C-alpha cells in the first residue's frame, strides 16, 4: 500500500511538474508571438521606408533629367546667340568698331572690385563710398 501511495504521489508530482513546465512553455510561446508581431511591424515599416526612398530616388532622377535637358537647351540658345552676334559683327563694320572700343571709366569701375576673403569684407566694401559720377554731368569721355 505504501508503495502504491508512493507511486501515486510520484505520478502526481510528475504531473504537477509537467503542468508547471507546460505553463512556462505557454508563457514563452506568448512572448515569442509578441516578438514575431513586433518584428513583423518593424519589417513592414522598413519596407515602407524603402518604397518611399525608391519613389524619391525616381523623382530625383526625373528632376535631374529635366535639369540636364534645360541646361542643354540653355547652352544651345547661348551658342545660337553667340553665333548671331558674331555674324552681326562680321557684317557691320561700325558695330564691330563699337564692340571693340573701350568702356567708359564709370562703367569699367563697376566691373572692378577687390578680392574678398569673407562676406564681412564684401559688406564693408559695399558700405564704403564708391560712388559713380553724377549722370547729369558730362563725363570725361563724352567731352
Quick summary:
With 143 residues, the chain is mostly helical. It has a domain at 57-82. The protein is built from four helices and no strands.
Write the layout of secondary structure elements.
Layout: H1 2-91, H2 93-100, H3 105-110, H4 119-127
Helix pairs in contact: 1-2
Task: Indicate the percent of residues in helices.
Answer: over 70%
Instruction: Quote the beta fraction.
Output: under 5%
Q: Averaging pLDDT over every residue, what do you get? A: 86
The number of distinct helices, counting runs of at least 4 residues, comes to 4
> What's the end-to-end separation, in Å?
142 Å
Total count of strands: 0
User: In one word, what is the shape?
Assistant: rod-shaped
Structural class: mainly alpha
Ranges where pLDDT stays below 50 over 5 or more residues in a row are: none
Please write the string of helix (H) and strand (E) elements.
HHHH
Largest sheet: none
Q: Gyration radius, to the nearest Å?
A: 43 Å
How would you describe this structure to a colleague?
It comes from Sodalis ligni. This is LysB family phage lysis regulatory protein. Residues 46-73 form a coiled coil. Keywords: Coiled coil. With 143 residues, the chain is mainly α. The protein has a domain at 57-82. It is 79% helix and 0% strand. It has helices spanning 2-91, 93-100, 105-110, 119-127. The radius of gyration is 43 Å and the shape is rod-shaped.
Keywords:
143 residues, mainly alpha, rod-shaped, Phage_P2_LysB, LysB family phage lysis regulatory protein, coiled coil
